[in-house]
Amino acid sequence: MDRGSAIALNPLTMTYFRWTDEFLDPMRRLGDEPADQLVRALFAAQQVDAVNSMMRVLVGNEAIPPGSIPDDLRRFLESVAVLPPWADVAKIQAGQQLFWEHGPAIVLLLHCYSLPYCYAARKGVQALALTGRLNTNPSRRITETAQMLMDVLSPGGLTGPGTGIRTVQKVRLMHAGVRYQLLHSNQWKPDFDHPLNQEDLAGTLMSFTWITLDGLRRLGIHVSEAEAEAYLHCWNAIGHILGIRQELLPADLADAEALTAAFERRQFAACEEGRSMTTALLETMDHILPGNVFDGLSGALTYYFVGDNTANLLGVKPVPFERALLRPLQSANLIADDFLESSGWMQQLVALVSRHLLEGLQFTARGGNRPSFSIPTELRQRWGINWRS
Predict the structure, then answer these.
(1) Per-residue model confidence (pLDDT) at position 59
(2) Which of 155, 296, 301, 353 has its CB 3.0 to 4.6 Å from that of 324, i.e. a possible disulfide?
(3) 374 near 362, Cβ under 8 Å?
(4) pLDDT by residue (tens digit) across 117-164?
């Protein structure tokens, strides 16, 4: 079946439609009006410092301390701190369980598949490029994204005392702030459409859902249909809190695959910004992974996952696994000489590299007296992560 022609089900109206240009084009003119309205009001009242203070408050506290932020900001946060009425807590927990089982591989896929997928979208990547954060501080960018996964997908992250909802609130307000600043700058071009628009947000959501599930499949990791649907449902709930319109949340896996294909068809194109961000991402991964034996691995894995066409758009060169990784690892006695001949060698490779990546993220992100990237104790124990103090 042609992915781009699949029929999708709107979970709100229960009516069918296709992911057509006629439907998606208007979504490129829409931001997130509730959050955008709040940010406009804060800027008009010269309360930008209050927004920055709020970000620090959200990071450091489970609840919002009384009197710490303006009333309109408090009301907004309270209004978006609840799961949508259609959310199924059991499915959300099942989706989080998938992360419990395969979290290290999912974090690796984030860096080698999901983020490059986003950078291939020529218009959407312009907002990231103009903020300059990945190029000026790539380690911070990727550790923050990995931390978001930990916060929302750890047990209780969305349904209990965890930090997931607070993290999504922070990201939503950051998006609104970036939107405001770009629209009031002389650098944003109308050709890019509305910054961080609804289609781009939906495409990003697909990078965390269908792209991740596709990556697990390509690694030979079995995920049942029920587990995959639960993972999608979990991320749909996150997308709702993030301000993505209901009609852009896929109803099922086929719907998500169709939306992913439509986004690729409409938005993927070569541009210098996408290539620059991909280069910065891969160089940072090589830096985070310990020693020199993993150098070049991130590019080899990215090429494997995104495929020839997208890799060419991003400037990722084809590098055989044997030359990029296996021989150096054999020399370092990290893998056996007959590694490639063993069944499930790709899963073993990812298990080895993802563990080192998670440990490297913690070590690289450490600053002051506490790490800026952390994994809940139960997950560290489950994954066998060495947490250096």
Answers:
(1) 53
(2) 296
(3) yes
(4) 999 999 999 998 888 654 556 677 778 888 899 999 988 889 876 688
Reading the block at residue 194, the tokens are 């509305």
b/e code 123-144 from CB counts within 10 Å (16+ = b): bbbbbbbbbeebbeebbbbbbb
| pLDDT < 50: residue spans in the chain | 1-16, 134, 366-370, 389
How far apart are alpha carbons 42 and 70 in whole angstroms?
9
pLDDT at 4: 34
Tell me how far apart the alpha carbons of residues 268 and 263 are, in angstroms, rounded to a whole number: 8
Gap between the Cα atoms of 254 and 45, Å rounded:
46
Q: pLDDT tens digits for 215-228?
A: 999 988 999 999 99
Query: Closest Cα partner for 352 from 375, 334, 332?
Result: 334
Q: How many residues does the chain have?
A: 389
Phi first, then psi: give them for residue 135, nearest 5 degrees.
Answer: -75, -35
Residue linked to tokens 């709107």? 10
| H helix or E strand, kind and range, residue 366 | strand 366-367
DSSP calls for 246-303: GGGS-SSHHHHHHHHHHHHHHHB---HHHHHHHHHHHHHHHHHSSSSTTTTHHHHHHH
Pair type for strands 16-18 and 366-367: unpaired
Question: In this structure, are residues 241 and 35 in contact, taking their beta carbons and an 8 Å threshold?
Answer: no
CA atoms of 87 and 73, how far apart (whole Å): 25
Q: What is the mean pLDDT of the chain?
A: 83
Helix (H) or strand (E) holding 370: strand 370-371
Say how far apart CA 358 and CA 383 lie, in whole Å.
Answer: 10
Query: Can you say whether the dihedral through the CA atoms of 261, 149, 81, 233 is positive or negative?
Result: positive
C-alpha 36 chain-centroid distance: 21
55 Cβ partners below 8 Å, 6+ apart? 170, 173, 174
116's CB contacts (< 8 A; 6+ apart) are 278, 281, 302, 305, 306, 310, 314, 316
Q: In one letter, which amino acid is 277? A: M
Q: Look up the pTM and report it.
A: 0.87
The domain spans of the chain are: 23-267
